[in-house]
């Protein structure tokens, strides 16, 4: 009707973003600016892992923004340790890991968290569709396929991209994973611990543009080999060794997810995520 005012409902910010950074001074500022443009972002925790370039200075440029927290390691402790440091500071109900480079696009946040907001998942991975313009190398892609296949065999699941860095989940769940990996081994550790708790990993396609060595890519074939050993260790460990005493949280969450997936539960709104 003409003259009737219209209103647009902005989504409530529910996402906390951990940005682990080591010698990413060239790209960190641009990445964080892009992250802060996303309306779903409530909080950004930048963790400088004792960089030797201008990474910490770039991070501190955002100190005046109330959404940004800057943490600093006095010694280089690795990506896994940086993620744990960031997780301690997260207060948002959902958490995502954003590498401090330009390989992953924050514009994908909305579709990454959508299955969680709809109550259909507690964990979502962004699946990379490797192509000529997005793959770092043929062997990089083959290596990812091998560790992904190993994951599916060990944990009797079916995912397409185990090593993706875009992983989003409830903060309450991530804190219960009991992560111990200090370096890149944290990625397969996260992936392995999730199915051990009974959760299914929901996947959505994302945009991806791999860096070259000259642009700062750090992952090597050795990390792929280590990933296999980490996956095997998680698979062979007992539940008590991995998580300690049984936690009723998981039983309640899995029951809630099953109810929604079977069509018997309410769909969660953008403002209904529990803290």
Write the layout of secondary structure elements.
Blueprint: E1 15-21, H1 28-36, E2 41-48, H2 55-60, E3 68-72, H3 79-89, E4 94-97, H4 109-117, E5 123-128, H5 138-155, E6 167-170, H6 171-174, H7 186-196, E7 202-206, H8 221-236, H9 239-243, H10 248-261
Parallel strand pairs: 1-2, 1-4, 2-3, 5-7
Antiparallel strand pairs: 4-6, 5-6
Count of alpha and pi helical runs: 10
Largest sheet composition: 7 strands, mixed
Mean pLDDT: 86
The N- to C-terminal Cα distance equals: 39 Å
Query: Largest sheet, order of strands side by side?
Result: 3-2-1-4-6-5-7
Estimated radius of gyration:
19 Å
Structural class: alpha/beta
Low-pLDDT ranges:
1-7
Task: Give the ordered list of helices and strands.
Answer: EHEHEHEHEHEHHEHHH
Shape: globular
Multimerization state: single chain
Number of strands: 7
What's the helical proportion of residues? 25-40%
Task: Describe the fold and architecture.
The protein is α/β, with parallel strands linked by helices. The protein has two domains: 12-102, Alpha-Beta Complex (Spore Coat Polysaccharide Biosynthesis Protein SpsA, Chain A); 103-262, no CATH class. The protein is built from ten helices and seven strands. The chain has helices spanning 28-36, 55-60, 79-89, 109-117, 138-155, 171-174, 186-196, 221-236, 239-243, 248-261; strands at 15-21, 41-48, 68-72, 94-97, 123-128, 167-170, 202-206. It has a seven-stranded mixed sheet with strand order 3-2-1-4-6-5-7, with helices on both faces. Helix 5 packs parallel to helix 8 and helix 7 (186-196) packs parallel to helix 8 (221-236). The radius of gyration is 19 Å and the shape is globular.
């Amino acid at each position: 009707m003409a003259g009737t005012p219209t209103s647009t409902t902005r989504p409530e910010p529910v996402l906390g973003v951990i940005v682990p950074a080591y010698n990413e001074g060239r790209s960190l500022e641009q990445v964080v600016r892009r992250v802060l443009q996303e309306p779903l972002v409530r909080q950004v925790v930048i963790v400088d892992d004792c960089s030797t370039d201008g990474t910490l200075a770039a991070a501190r440029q955002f100190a005046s923004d109330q959404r940004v927290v800057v943490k600093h390691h006095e010694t280089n402790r690795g990506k896994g340790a940086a993620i744990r440091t960031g997780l301690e500071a997260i207060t948002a109900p959902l958490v995502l890991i954003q590498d401090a480079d330009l390989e992953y696009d924050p514009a994908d946040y909305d579709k990454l968290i959508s299955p969680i907001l709809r109550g259909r998942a507690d964990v979502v991975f962004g699946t990379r569709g490797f192509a000529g313009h997005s793959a770092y190398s043929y062997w990089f892609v083959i290596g990812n396929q091998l560790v992904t296949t190993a994951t599916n065999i060990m944990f009797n699941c079916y995912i397409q991209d185990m090593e993706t860095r875009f992983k989003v989940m409830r903060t309450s769940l991530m804190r219960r994973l009991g992560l111990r990996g200090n370096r890149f081994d944290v990625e397969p550790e996260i992936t392995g611990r999730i199915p051990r708790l009974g959760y299914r990993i929901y996947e959505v396609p994302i945009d991806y543009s791999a860096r070259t060595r000259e642009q700062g890519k750090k992952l090597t074939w050795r990390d792929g080999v280590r990933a296999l050993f980490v996956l095997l260790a998680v698979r062979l460990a007992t539940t008590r060794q991995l998580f300690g005493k049984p936690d009723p949280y998981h039983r309640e969450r899995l029951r809630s997810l099953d109810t929604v997936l079977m069509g018997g539960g309410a769909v969660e709104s953008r403002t209904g995520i529990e803290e």
